Structures
1.
Amino acid sequence: DVKVTQSSRYLVKRTGEKVFLECVQDMDHENMFWYRQDPGLGLRLIYFSYDVKMKEKGDIPEGYSVSREKKERFSLILESASTNQTSMYLCASRARTGKDTQYFGPGTRLTVL
Amino acid sequence: GDSVTQMEGPVTLSEEAFLTINCTYTATGYPSLFWYVQYPGEGLQLLLKATKADDKGSNKGFEATYRKETTSFHLEKGSVQVSDSAVYFCALSDPAGTYKYIFGTGTRLKVLA
């Protein structure tokens, strides 16, 4: 059974803090994604990684960075959290191509005070 | 650019009613099309998919047919249950074969007993 796990279901941080969100997949997938989900806006892609140490910016990368040192792990970093980064963050992985299914983690609901 | 348009919700139905959630897309090539479902407090999970024109995806009583002539991928179910209450997302994969998925904004379904 495929599995994508995220380090926390709920997080509360203060403005200016550095925040790490971690995602691990056990399917040996090459591609991994970070999205944020906001009411009325659907899912927006923050960053994508197509291989270890490889990354590409998505639609809304500002204020975020990522790290992929191992194939199974993809981290999202908020360098200096701000209140407008309060959101649901979803990690996903996919084998390789656009025809392949994305598998999602349960999400991390981040609140920045 | 590529886009996905879903009918706005919420959609409220009685148990055993017929469900249709409309989805249309704009893409320059031949995308793969997906329906994902998100239950409360969870991440997205694949409901069904179709990778070429006239394909029908089906799962758990839900169906959708890839209609290239009308650029549509409408989700249907003949008899909904209370347990189908969730948010449904239509999505397409970038036909250029790159990483991007394009998601609709989601349609909330509420089924009443």
2.
Amino acid sequence: RKEVEQDPGPFNVPEGATVAFNCTYSNSASQSFFWYRQDCRKEPKLLMSVYSSGNEDGRFTAQLNRASQYISLLIRDSKLSDSATYLCVVKINTGGFKTIFGAGTRLFVKA
Amino acid sequence: DAGVIQSPRHEVTEMGQEVTLRCKPISGHDYLFWYRQTMMRGLELLIYFNNNVPIDDSGMPEDRFSAKMPNASFSTLKIQPSEPRDSAVYFCASSLAPGTSGYNEQFFGPGTRLTVL
């Protein structure tokens, strides 16, 4: 079983749609959580951190459920520019912090 | 302000040749990470350094791979000898210390696209 699992998609949605991505992690020592975005043939970039209380940044909302070891990302009012791969990222406290990336979920937003 | 710099951006080599990838982290960042990304395996952490010292190299696939960080502004990832299955995009990233929470951003370089024929 992979340490961080995501639905690979692709998700094909029209502009204006709401789309949700899920991610599960297996290591209970996981301590910090993130969503990164990666455009085609580009490097990953931080989209948002995910905190226990849940957090929102404009059209993006992230949730964390530690009991179920589950992270989610909700995108409202999708834009064409949201088309990308969304990577779920978990840091495991091993004394230092080991970073584990999920395989990513591809999103295509169409006009 | 310059981000993480990697060179070369593209490398095509033949099986058996030595390949050296280079990275300059963001000034002031004391953590440096090397990742490999392929379609099959996604983004994998190979090794990371703290203050130029390797902390975790458990992701390094085998002895053919080695990484060094001789100073705070430079790191190399070397593959010797290279094999076709090493073909991938290799990313370098850097960050400030994560603190006790582990919440900090990793900044990625543009990557080196390696093709081994």
